[in-house]
Amino acid sequence: MRFIRLQKFLLLCCFLAAGPAFAERGLAGSAQAAPGDSVLARRAQDLVERRCMVCHGCYDAPCQLKLEARAGLERGASKDRVYDAERLLDADMTRLFFDARSAEKWRDKGFYPVIDPNTPANGLIYRMLALKEAHPLPPSGAVPEGFDFSLDREQVCAKPDEFEEFAANNPYWGMPFGLPGLTPDEHTTLTTWLSRSAPAVPLAPLEPRVKGARERWEDFLNSRDNKQRLMARYLYEHLFLADLYFGDATGEGETPVWFRLVRSKTPPGEPLRVIATRRPFDDPGRANFYYRFMRIPVRPLAKIHMPYRLDAARMARYRELFLAPDYRVDKLPGYELEVASNPFKSFQAIPANSRYRFLLDEARFTIMNFIKGPVCRGQVALNVIDDRFWVMFANPDLIDVEQDEAFLAREADNLQLPTSRTGTAIDLVAWHSYSRSEQAYREARASHIQQRLSGAHMKINKRLIWDGDGHNDNAALTIFRHFDSASVEKGFIGSEPKTAWVISYPLLERIHYLLVANYDVFGAVSHQLESRLYMDFLRMEGETNFLLFMPPGERDKLWHYWYRGAPASVTEYLSAQFRATAVDLGINYQTGDPKKEFLDYMRDHIHGARVPRWDYHDKAAPELARVLDGMQAAVGAHNSFLPQVSLLNVIGKHTDTVYTIVRDAGYSNIAQLFDEAERRVPEEDSLTIVPGFLGAYPNYFFLVHEDEMAGFAAAVRELDSPEAYNQLQERWGVRRTDPWFWRVSDKFQAMRTAQSPIEDGLLDYNRYQAGSTPRDEAKR
Length: 780
Hints:
By secondary structure, the protein is of the alpha/beta class.
């Protein structure tokens, strides 16, 4: 054991010598610092980001203390939970920047202060830091008993007058929670900053080129022409979560100024007054309103950061898609729920091909909205998808049988999605009507497909899959599920997946309105349950679209394997679907494995499907590549002891590279809402290994010298118990208690920033392991 610790110490010295410095980036705020405090404020904000924000961001921030922006620090904390599986009524909304605009308004919503400008040492953050300094974690081994890092743990959100009791009962619960404390210099920086009333970093004024770009876009979106107004409404309902930046006004290497597209009571040129509705398609409450770009002074979080570029080329593309086609908008659609929540009704005037092309242009962003979004946590929502699958899209240049304008108009009522009306459990009664509508649409769709495909004029081949027009790398995507979070990346990553989807326009639009525009994280449990149940239909539709490209006999073989042990209602649904579309598309397969042949073909013919960024063979030394190949080839239960997402830093004389190890968990089926652990098949667990950083929630860090990689891989293959995994951690892992944890974190964050500056966002450590963990996260 002493030898292992000495070996680990020497490896750490090598690691620290190789690690780049973390770039200082401050957050701006409303209360500006005095000239003498500006340097202190920037250093303090940098520490808040790297030590506090990595756990306190998004809706799963403990006690709703969100620190990605100065506004979150001023808002404070709350005892109310955003995630509540027993909530029967819609909760009060607490969206930062939207649902209250001052500390006083947040106090009315139950938030209490965490800084005390009058007596700084009485502020909660100050006292939490002091508690950690007085009671640090042990410098090695597991964290002390009493810590609960599960996402559904009971939160203890002490108010200032409750702190003494909190500290007496939980002496090791100082901040950073369950992680090493600050260095003396860092502690002095933060406490000095707090003692001076936590001055904010001055918010830099917008440069003229950024102001000019914003003005051009606000003019573009606020025309009084009906055609342009309908376009603006469509864009808003699809971009309302985007982190927008003006690419023409952002220089090479510059950090963008981020904006959010909002509806405002005031026109461009006047102070912005946001109309904060629960959903983007809700009635704004006034006839005259304006689309505006609200500056959001935040440090992006990787788990919710969705950058979207606006520039002259994008505006020209919008004109081409939405304004150039010959159609009329005599009357704008209203905001009645039956119309506004159904894009096939509200935007019927816009050609379907234009809408589809808009979604395809940035397909990764489109999918990312429901994969990331603002939800942050979603095991129940995400257990509707497999752990890794590939996504393709129907070709908009060829006849899309579902894109037929007349067909969509006829089926608009059946395409109505679940929309919460009352915020009570009574909403579940409406589920039966949605189910019947989905069945009616499914039958009409099958009949329409059968009719169109049976004609001699309709030649079916692999060209029905969009190839990205030869230049768009959004045409092939890989979606990863990490138990209760997920990622989407461009390209077909990893080996042949168990399942694949082909997404058509109606399916892509419904996914957006079900899980993005209409999804309410503050909604009643009935609303969230309806959304989850309806997503089953949409997943199966994407899968059956893919299976249509298989020979009829192969379709049955595949879906029976994908849905082993599924309820009779699911198997009957799929059987009926394939009976109705039993036509053989006539693709001439040359091998006995049509699925692999089809996916291999698409990987070679879709632009961007092969993506060097995620292929370590072009970067790793041959010997290391062989080791990684062996880890990926070894499918089995030993992989189930690894966490969902691990960051592996391979260090040596000629390398200092980070790889992400993603565990793809096996399931007999994903067609049921509960008892996920009962459907786990650990023997089918596999690994996908990529260079760089994938995922926003790393579960564990490993530091391995290149000469020890073969031994590390062998140890992984021999995992057979939590004790064996604990030994793996002891030799190569970075525990929560390790004093060098933050140095590793800083290095990784700097490397991640260098990998993708525009998409850069801080990692989140809410899911970082405390020690050896049972292999089934579903038991959490």
